[in-house]
Structure formats: structure tokens, C-alpha cells
UniProtKB/TrEMBL annotation:
Keywords: Membrane, Transmembrane, Transmembrane helix. GO terms for cellular component: type II protein secretion system complex. It comes from Fimbriimonas ginsengisoli Gsoil 348. Pfam families: T2SSG (PF08334). Residues 37-132 form the Type II secretion system protein GspG C-terminal domain. This is General secretion pathway protein G. The chain crosses the membrane at residues 6-31. Coiled coil: none annotated.
Length: 135
């Protein structure tokens, strides 16, 4: 009986290890692709938001204030003369990591829309890199 058990383990364990290695090699490319997909999607979102902000400015003569934020692209702020939105189909997207994009209007009238990447911390590279678009 112990000989059968020994043979069974001698065959089963290496076979199990081989199967796990093959599965790991098949899954690895998908994990790498997911890491790249977030920044690519965020870059596309940021360009779409920039286009919507440009359309808002054409109609209203200025960009939304920081307080009005990106919500001004969906619903007219009280002081937005000439507003012909909504400027975005559907809701303003969240970043690929589920957080709202950050919007800031500077004193000189230029905006920045940004995300802090997967780690939600300033700096980083790869999937953790900060991404932004500025006018």
C-alpha cells in the first residue's frame, strides 16, 4: 500500500506542478494587459473631457470654475450664459480605478484634469503614473 501511495505521489505532484506552471504562463499576459489598460483608458477619458470642456468654453466664453467642476458639463451652472449642454453623453466617467477625475481651474483661466493613477498617490510610473490634460 505504501508503494502505491509513493508511486501516486511521485506521478501526481510533478503533474500538478506542470499544470500550475502552464496555467500561470497563460494568465500572465492578461495581468500585464490589465495594468496597461488603465492608463490607456484614462488617457482617452481625459481627451474626451478636454473636448467637452472646449465645447463648454465655446458656448459660455469661459471654463467652469473649480467649484463648478466637471458637473458643469452635465448640468448648467447658475451663471453659465450660453450653456447648450450636456457636453458629455451619459455621466462624466470615473477614472479606471473608480475615482472621480480631478478638475482645477487656475487663476489665469487654464484648467487641469487629472488622475493619480492606480495607487492614488502623487508620482509613480506605469499603472501608478499620474495622468493629466491641461489647456
Amino acid at each position: 500500500m505504501s508503494r502505491k501511495l509513493f508511486v501516486l505521489l511521485f506521478v501526481t505532484v510533478p503533474l500538478l506542478v506542470l499544470v500550475l506552471v502552464i496555467v500561470g504562463l497563460m494568465v500572465w499576459p492578461f495581468i500585464s494587459y490589465r495594468e496597461l489598460a488603465g492608463p490607456r483608458l484614462a488617457t482617452t477619458d481625459l481627451q474626451n473631457i478636454r473636448n467637452a470642456l472646449d465645447a463648454y468654453k465655446l458656448d459660455c466664453g469661459h471654463f467652469p470654475t473649480t467649484q463648478e467642476g466637471l458637473a458643469a458639463l452635465e448640468k448648467s451652472p447658475p451663471q453659465a450664459r450660453g450653456w447648450h449642454g450636456p457636453y458629455f453623453r451619459g455621466a462624466i466617467p470615473k477614472d479606471p480605478w473608480g475615482r472621480p477625475y480631478r478638475y482645477q481651474l487656475s487663476r489665469n483661466g487654464r484648467f487641469t484634469v487629472s488622475t493619480l493613477g492606480a495607487d492614488n498617490k502623487p508620482g509613480g510610473d506605469g499603472g501608478n503614473a499620474d495622468l493629466s490634460v491641461t489647456e
